[in-house]
Structure formats: C-alpha cells, structure tokens
Amino acid sequence: MKLNRSSGISVAGEFEASTRAPQRSSAGTQARAVSDGTPGADISDDRHARWLAACGVAGPVMLAAYFGAPALVPRLGSLIYSGGMPTTAKIVTVGAHYHQLLTVGCWLQGTGALLCVVFLLALAQWSGGGSSFPGRILLLGCVLLVGLVLAEMVFTFTWASAASHGQLGTARAAYDLMARFAQVFPIVPAPTVYLALAAVLAAGRPVLAAVFTRLAVVIGIGFLIVGVAVALTPAAAAAAGGLAALQALWILAAGITALRVTNA
Questions:
Q1: DSSP letter at 233?
Q2: Non-local CB neighbours of 214 within 8 Å, separated by 6+ positions
Q3: Secondary element (H or E) of residue 236
Q4: Which among 18, 109, 229, 235 has most CB atoms closer than 10 A?
Q5: 196: left (phi over 0), alpha (psi -120 to 50) or beta
Q6: What does the pLDDT profile of the chain (264 residues) look like in tens digits?
Q7: Is 65 helix (H, G, I), strand (E, B) or coil?
C-alpha cells in the first residue's frame, strides 16, 4: 500500500494545528482574564486578601471612635474642637481629668491609621502599581502620614502625663503642638496619598469601581485647596475635618467592597 505524500503532509498539518489550537485558546482565555474589567478580579489571588480588606474596615471604624469620643464628653470636646487658644488652666485640668481617655484615644488613632495605610498599600499591590512611580509616591505619602500621626500621639501622651503630674509648662507646650495636627495634615500627607492612589488605580488593574478613583482625585484636590487655605488662615483647618470624614468613608466603602470580593 502506497501512502500519498501530500496526504501525509496534510494530515500532519491538521494534527499540528489541532494541538496548537487549545494552547492559543488557553492563552486567549488567560489574556481575557487579566484584562477583564471586573472590579476586584485580582484580589482573590492574594491569600491574605481577606485580612487586608478587613484592615480597610477596621481602620476607619477605629478612627471614627477616636474622633467621635470627644464629642460625647463635653469638656474634652469643647477644648479640642472649639478652636482658639484655651487657657493653660483649662488645658491642665482637662488633660488630668481625662488622662486615661486620651491615652486610649492615642491607641485608637495610631492603630486605626496604620490599618488604613496597610489597606491603601494593598490596593496598590492588587492593581499592579505598587512598584510604579505613583506607587512609590503613595508609599512616601503613607510614611509621612504615619509619621505625623505618631508625632501627634507623642504630644498627646505628653500632654496627658504632664497635666496629671501638674507640669503646667510641659502640658501647655504639648497641647499646642498636638493641636497643630489639623493644619499640617492637609498640606502634605493627605493630598500626596490620595492623588498618588488615584494615579495607581487609574493606570492599574481595576480592583475597585471607577467611582472610587474619581472620588480619590476629588479628596486629593480638596486637601490641596484646604492646605493652601490653612497656610493663609488657621481657621480653615475646620474644613480638613470634613475631608477627613470623607476619606474615612472612602476607605470604609473600599474595604467593604474588597471584603465582599474575597468572600464571594
């Protein structure tokens, strides 16, 4: 029996094509999976994603407790949120009376801020932009933010301790330094973090809905404007409080979104 050469070549070609087709199909499927615009498509690949997403929920809740507690204590709230220059006697009296509450508040503030920063860096990692230039600027902004929070914690601890021991001059100086947090925060750390984060989310894989990226831009620009206003008049620091509440809601909503993806 004679085998036709042209038929053999044809059969071999069909066999080679049939073996390559599944490979091309598999590669195409993978490419579509990577470029899929579904928010959160890559979060589930991280085995620590659930814990990182939980940071985005726990952090804002702790910060809300920290900022909201003084509002429930009239004497403390009137001192911290009333503005102006309170008398040294009032600073010492309130600091000594609420010494324990101030120290617990420091723990809430420091831990809550750290959890929020961890979540923001996780978003950058999930989007694939952690090592990009905007991602490095985001990391720099987070370092500045945590450093500022730690400085405020030191001043608060010093104020509470000095007031409880009757050290009037130290308590006064520590309180005045602590109170400047609201003026420094919107000038450098806050706009750096949110504008860099918006750039990372816009250029990377879609880990969140597009509205989160647009809101991050709005928050970042808002902090820039407030930062300039604060440099001109300290009274504008009150506007930073509203933006701080908005950023906490942003992180909380993003954390809940990410947590739902990991539990899906």
A1: -
A2: 198
A3: none
A4: 109
A5: alpha
A6: 444 444 444 444 444 444 444 444 343 333 333 334 445 546 656 678 889 999 999 999 999 999 988 888 888 988 888 777 889 999 999 999 999 999 999 999 999 999 999 999 999 999 998 889 999 999 999 999 999 999 999 999 999 999 999 999 999 999 999 988 888 999 999 999 999 999 999 998 888 999 999 999 999 999 999 999 988 887 787 788 889 999 999 999 999 999 888 876
A7: helix
d(CA 71, CA 60): 17
CB-based burial, 89-101: b 16+ in 10 Å, e otherwise: eebbebbbbbbee
Helix 189-203 / helix 210-232 crossing angle, nearest 10 deg = 160
Cβ distance 195 to 218 under 8 Å?
no
Rounded distance between C-alpha atoms, residue 226 and residue 212, angstroms: 21
* E strands, 137-181, in order: none
Separation of CA 91 from chain center: 32
247, 42 Cβ separation under 8 angstroms: no
Quote the tokens at residue 126: 């999930």
Q: Is residue 126 exposed (0-12), middle (13-18) or buried (19+ Cβ within 10 Å)?
A: buried
